[in-house]
Amino acid sequence: MARPDKAAAVAELTDEFRSSNGAVLTEYRGLTVAQLKQLRTALGDDVNYAVVKNTLTKIAAKDAGVDSFDTLLEGPSAIAFIKGDPVVAAKGLRDFAKANPLLVIKGGVLEGKALGSDEISKLADLESREVLLAKLAGAMKAAPQQAVSLFAAPLSQAARLFAALQDKLPAEAVPVQDAVQDSAADEAPAEASTEETASAES
């Protein structure tokens, strides 16, 4: 590769490191072109999976302030530059590696922090940002519903109580509705007397 081409390649890789919120280094030895295409499709538009040259990547990583790849850049290397949710990208890489063991996840970097392959695997086990936002939205939506249920609970409990009482009453007994009305009528004078007392006090 001519020097200007090398400089352009380094500049492009440096920009990828700087503009990505994470990057995962992999070894793809033995994978076919078709499998690499399948992996790119699986990772989606928020991940740029690029086959890289180790020497140029070391220079670009150093220029971008990433030093965690220095000892890992051996053999056929490709980097997943993550622009979106790192959890989704980690899941995509892990799942593809399970189905295609020739893909080896060697390490990565997330928001400037170096990650080992085991940490990337743990990252893949987390819930995605989309799922967490959906759960948060569900929790916020549930709050007013819980309040409505709370206010509605005494009414439904009263209805069940009245139905249960109706079942227990003998056939000749006063119907529950009448009993409730009588009970309300008995309480009315007490309320009136309370109002009169309040009026007298004022």
From TrEMBL:
Domain of life, source organism: Bacteria
Any single GO CC term annotated in Swiss-Prot or TrEMBL for this entry: large ribosomal subunit
InterPro entries assigned to the protein according to its UniProt record, in alphabetical order: Ribosomal_uL10 (IPR001790), Ribosomal_uL10-like_sf (IPR043141), Ribosomal_uL10_bac (IPR022973), Ribosomal_uL10_bac_type (IPR047865), Ribosomal_uL10_CS_bac (IPR002363)
Low complexity composition bias: residue spans: 190-202
Disordered: annotated segments: 176-202
Keyword rRNA-binding attached: yes
Role this protein plays: Forms part of the ribosomal stalk, playing a central role in the interaction of the ribosome with GTP-bound translation factors.
Subunit structure, as described in the record: Part of the ribosomal stalk of the 50S ribosomal subunit. The N-terminus interacts with L11 and the large rRNA to form the base of the stalk. The C-terminus forms an elongated spine to which L12 dimers bind in a sequential fashion forming a multimeric L10(L12)X complex.
Protein name as annotated: Large ribosomal subunit protein uL10
The species this protein was found in: Kribbella kalugense
